[in-house]
Write a structure and sequence with these properties.
three-stranded antiparallel sheet; Cytochrome-c3 Hydrogenase, chain B; alpha+beta; 17 helices
Length: 413
């Protein structure tokens, strides 16, 4: 095989002309399709990369592989039934989806759930935040070669899913929140299970930090990689940990408190550089703050009702249905028809593990939503990926994408 020598290059330059040779070299780019990939094989993201060697010069994101028309599905269900499909928008944080939607409907109805229901909602959504961040951490670290973290993270998440199963009967999509309160009161073993988990949590978090916080291989992969400025983050519409890692202290729970969050003492962790390492530190600190909120909610859990005592909104107790014709009529009406919601429109945002998730809900006065539109934080996270990874190496792309959103944690497989 003939090897290219220095004289060959000089001869070619003389034949083509210096400028033509330089243009040809500069135009040699490789286009690579990354994805669509997903642990469940149906794909959530595809990236089309233009490479100069191993450097990403341009990128385009293709999304929508998981689009199932959930918003339109919700518009063909009654107000309570829509909770079950909105659960599935984010299978890592279904209770956050539930909470934002029921708060929007309750605002249209002008009702406020009992304080016991509000505290249980806060407690469970903060546990949900921890569970979601644990999946993010497990897959993110695994992508960079830290295999033990994967097992640690999913083991810790199992304890939270056990709690969800205890109160709702389901682990992944509990559909536990209802317009007006909760589907049912917490079980007798609920307090004991949550207390045991929160007692063990600091030690388990210490184990995770001991593996990664000062790991030289981990630090070399994540520090000063994929940095985002505060101005860029705001311009791209980033929220949640990705925004706070840039030093912008916006958190819906603090800015627009809902569901009694104003009664809890917690901090909003911030980063300094907006890089992969800061996104890691912010999420780790958020898990600790979520445990702090959950402990306050558990210790201060009020007694009393777990849903509004309005027979036109809440199902009557079973024992009452057996002995009261009026209760039976209300039960039949709620199950077969639901309830009407006064005409109007509302926007309600909550702080999900991925950022601000907002529900724009419109009622025409009927028994089902006329319009449901969701502001999905992951959509804004995704649109920023091509801008963040440009100029980085392909190897760094893996770390950057995995740091942005938990669903992208295995995009390189």
């Amino acid at each position: 095989m003939h090897e290219t020598t220095k004289h060959d290059v000089q001869d070619r330059r003389q034949g083509l002309g210096e400028s033509l040779w330089i243009d040809e070299v500069q135009q040699e780019r490789m286009t690579v399709s990354v994805g669509p990939h997903h642990p469940s094989t149906h794909g959530v993201l595809r990236l089309i990369l233009e490479l100069d060697g191993e450097t990403i010069t341009d990128a385009e994101a293709e999304i929508g592989f998981l689009h199932t028309g959930i918003e339109k599905h919700a518009e063909h269900l009654t107000w309570q039934q829509a909770i079950t499909v909105l659960d599935r928008m984010d299978y890592l944080s279904p209770l956050s989806n539930n909470l934002g939607y029921v708060l929007a409907v309750e605002k249209l109805l002008g009702v406020e759930p009992p304080r016991r229901a509000q505290y249980v909602r806060v407690l469970l959504t903060e546990l949900q935040r921890i569970a979601s961040h644990l999946v993010w951490l497990a897959t993110h670290a695994l992508d960079l070669g830290a295999q033990s973290i994967y097992f640690y993270g999913f083991d810790m998440r199992e304890g939270i899913l056990d709690i969800f199963e205890e109160v709702s009967g389901a682990r992944m999509n509990p559909s536990y929140f209802r317009v007006g309160g909760l589907a049912q009161d917490v079980t007798p073993g609920f307090v004991r299970m949550v207390d045991a988990y929160l007692r063990a949590f600091p030690r388990r978090m210490g184990e995770l930090r001991a593996i990664l916080d000062e790991n030289p291989i981990w630090l070399a992969r994540v520090r000063r990689t994929g940095a985002v400025t505060p101005e860029q983050a705001l311009a791209w519409g980033l929220t949640g940990p990705n925004l706070r890692a840039c030093g912008v202290g916006y958190d819906v729970r603090k800015a627009f408190p809902y569901s009694a969050y104003q009664e809890f003492d917690f901090e909003v962790p911030l980063g300094e550089h907006g890089d992969v390492y800061d996104r890691y530190l912010v999420r780790m600190a958020e898990m600790e703050q979520s445990a702090r909120i959950a402990r306050q909610a558990l210790d201060g859990l009020p007694e009393g009702r777990y849903r509004v005592e309005d027979p036109k909104l809440s199902l009557p107790p079973k024992e009452e249905v057996r002995r009261s014709m009026e209760a039976l009529i209300h039960h039949f009406k709620l199950v077969s028809y639901g309830f009407d919601v006064p005409a109007g429109e509302v926007y309600q945002a909550v702080e999900s593990p991925r950022g601000e998730i907002g529900f724009y809900v419109v009622s025409d006065g009927g028994n089902r939503p006329m319009r449901v539109r969701v502001r999905p934080p992951s959509f804004y996270n995704t649109q920023a990926i091509p801008l963040i990874i440009r100029g980085h190496l392909v190897a760094d792309m893996v770390a950057i994408i995995a740091s942005i959103d938990p669903v992208f944690g295995e995009v390189d497989r």
